[in-house]
């Protein structure tokens, strides 16, 4: 994996360096080989090639490493912007979607990366606050419950068991929908206020 990435970056750099250097040579070769470069210094223009031949030779020699280093920096920036960020996003996305470990997707941060609670965090407390009608149930409780009902729902040994206390009396209807959608009707036990319980099937 590392070798493939290194080779791909190396080939990318060589290709772009060749392109950029070709452009540099095409644009600056006439200047580089010229013997008359007029410098408009105030009211006394002068030919730098004749007046300061040593300085001009040093500038030409300095141009070679500067152009090479700047080209290498530019190609690496282009490579990173095209491939590295895209790969990181795909890796993060695939990890959040295809992971088999028990976790809870909460939301996304400002950069678009998922915020996920790992299994260890689910054994602690979660506090959801908000005013009446702010969407605590619809935007938090319902999605969280669905994820937990969905987790390994087809595996008799690994699917989750949950105790849900419905104080208002309307939360259970949404749970029924999730149970029915993931075909877990036989797992649902409703305990009523009449001190009786019954196994409900919602087919």
Secondary-structure map:
Blueprint lengths: L1 H32 L4 E2 L6 E2 H4 L1 H46 L4 E6 L5 E5 L17 H15 L20 H11 L7 E3 L5 E3 L4
Antiparallel strand pairs: 1-2, 3-4, 5-6
Helix pairs in contact: 1-3, 4-5
Which descriptors apply to this entry?
single chain, 203 residues, mainly alpha, two-stranded antiparallel sheet, 10% strand, rod-shaped
What does this structure look like?
The protein is mainly alpha-helical. Helices cover 53% and strands 10% of the residues. It has helices at 2-33, 48-51, 53-98, 136-150, 171-181, and strands at 38-39, 46-47, 103-108, 114-118, 189-191, 197-199. The strands form three sheets. A two-stranded antiparallel sheet has the order 1-2. A two-stranded antiparallel sheet has the order 3-4. A two-stranded antiparallel ribbon has the order 5-6. Helix 4 (136-150) packs parallel to helix 5. The chain is rod-shaped, with a radius of gyration of 33 Å.
Summary, kept brief:
Strand 3 (103-108) and strand 4 (114-118) form a beta hairpin. 53% of the residues lie in helices and 10% in strands. The protein has helices at 2-33, 48-51, 53-98, 136-150, 171-181; strands at 38-39, 46-47, 103-108, 114-118, 189-191, 197-199.
Number of helices: 5
Percent of residues in beta strands? 5-15%
Helix coverage percent of residues? 40-55%
* Strand-pairing-aware structural class: mainly alpha
The overall strand count is 6
Major sheet details:
2 strands, antiparallel
Output the strand order for the largest sheet. 1-2
Please tell me how large the radius of gyration is. Answer: 33 Å
Q: Kindly report the average pLDDT value.
A: 80
Order of helical and strand elements: HEEHHEEHHEE
Terminal CA distance: 49 Å
Overall spatial form: rod-shaped
Low-confidence stretches: 94-98
